[in-house]
C-alpha cells in the first residue's frame, strides 16, 4: 500500500544529484508545450485606447478613407470570400495542431516518462527522451493518438473525460516500457492497474496544489522548478502500480521487461 509521502520521498531520493539535469530537460520540453505543471508563455501586444481609436477611425494609408468606409464598400462576395478564407485558415491551424500533438508532443511525453523511470536507478542521459523516435515510433503515435481522442471526446461530457483520463493514466508509462503494446492492450492494462487507484491518484495530484499556489507568486516561474519533482513522483507511482500488476498476474516480464539503460544511438 503506497502513500503520498512515500512516493514523494522516493521522488526526492531519485532526484538527488540529478535534479538540475531533470530541470533542464523539463524546461526544454516546456518550450515545446510539454509538461503538466510547467507554465506556457504567450506573447501578447497591448495597445493604448487612443491607438485603438486611431486604428478604427483614423485614416488608412495616406488617403481619407476610414476603416468604416472600406468595410461599407465590401459586397457580399467579398464577405463570403473572407469567411471561406478564415475557415480554411482555421482548418489548417487545427491540422497543424493535431500533427504537432500526435507526432511530437505525445511521443516526447512517452520519452520523458522513460527518462524519469530510468533515472530512478541511475543518472539517465537526456537523449533518452529521443529513443522513442526509433521503431516502433508509429505505434506509439497511433496508441497515444487514439487514447487522447477517446479522452477528448469524453471531455465533451466532462465526467467521462475525467474518468477515462484516470483510467488511462498509465498508458504513456506502459508505452515507455514497451512501445510495441497494442492500443487495446495498453488501455486494458492501464485500466487494470488503475483499478481502485483513480481517487488516490487524483488526491496525489491535488497534493501539489500548495506548490502551485506558491509558484503563482513568482508569476509561474516556480512551476518550472516544480515540474521535475512532479514527474519523478508520477514515475514512483507507476513503479508501485507496476509491481502491483505483477503480483496480481496482470502482466509478466515478457510484456514489461523493465527500463534497461540503452544508448539512443544504438
Automatic annotation (TrEMBL):
Is Transmembrane helix a UniProt keyword of this protein? Answer: yes
Annotated keywords: Membrane, Transmembrane, Transmembrane helix
Transmembrane portions of the chain: 20-38, 79-105, 143-166, 202-226
Asked if the Swiss-Prot or TrEMBL record annotates the protein with the keyword Transmembrane, the reply is yes
Pfam families documented for this protein: DUF975 (PF06161)
Protein name in UniProt: DUF975 family protein
Origin species, per record, is Candidatus Gemmiger excrementavium
From the broadest rank down, the organism's phylogenetic lineage runs: Bacteria, Bacillati, Bacillota, Clostridia, Eubacteriales
Amino acid at each position: 500500500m503506497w502513500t503520498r509521502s512515500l512516493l514523494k520521498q522516493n521522488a526526492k531520493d531519485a532526484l538527488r544529484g540529478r535534479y538540475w539535469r531533470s530541470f533542464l530537460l523539463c524546461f526544454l520540453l516546456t518550450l515545446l508545450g510539454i509538461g503538466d505543471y510547467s507554465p506556457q508563455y504567450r506573447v501578447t501586444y497591448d495597445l493604448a485606447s487612443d491607438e485603438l481609436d486611431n486604428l478604427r477611425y483614423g485614416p488608412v494609408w495616406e488617403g481619407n478613407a476610414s476603416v468604416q468606409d472600406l468595410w461599407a464598400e465590401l459586397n457580399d462576395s467579398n464577405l463570403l470570400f473572407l469567411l471561406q478564407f478564415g475557415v480554411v485558415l482555421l482548418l489548417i491551424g487545427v491540422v497543424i495542431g493535431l500533427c504537432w500533438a500526435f507526432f511530437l508532443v505525445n511521443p516526447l511525453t512517452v520519452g520523458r516518462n522513460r527518462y524519469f523511470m530510468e533515472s530512478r536507478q541511475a543518472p539517465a542521459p537526456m537523449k533518452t527522451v529521443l529513443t522513442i523516435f526509433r521503431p516502433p515510433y508509429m505505434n506509439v503515435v497511433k496508441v497515444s493518438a487514439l487514447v487522447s481522442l477517446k479522452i477528448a471526446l469524453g471531455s465533451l461530457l466532462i465526467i467521462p473525460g475525467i474518468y477515462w483520463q484516470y483510467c488511462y493514466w498509465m498508458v504513456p508509462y506502459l508505452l515507455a516500457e514497451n512501445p510495441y503494446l497494442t492500443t487495446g492492450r495498453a488501455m486494458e492494462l492501464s485500466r487494470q492497474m488503475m483499478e481502485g487507484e483513480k481517487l488516490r491518484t487524483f488526491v496525489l495530484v491535488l497534493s501539489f496544489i500548495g506548490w502551485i499556489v506558491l509558484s503563482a507568486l513568482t508569476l509561474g516561474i516556480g512551476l518550472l522548478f516544480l515540474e521535475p519533482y512532479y514527474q519523478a513522483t508520477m514515475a514512483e507511482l507507476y513503479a508501485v502500480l507496476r509491481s502491483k500488476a505483477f503480483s496480481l498476474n496482470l502482466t509478466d516480464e515478457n510484456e514489461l521487461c523493465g527500463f534497461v539503460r540503452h544508448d539512443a544511438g544504438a
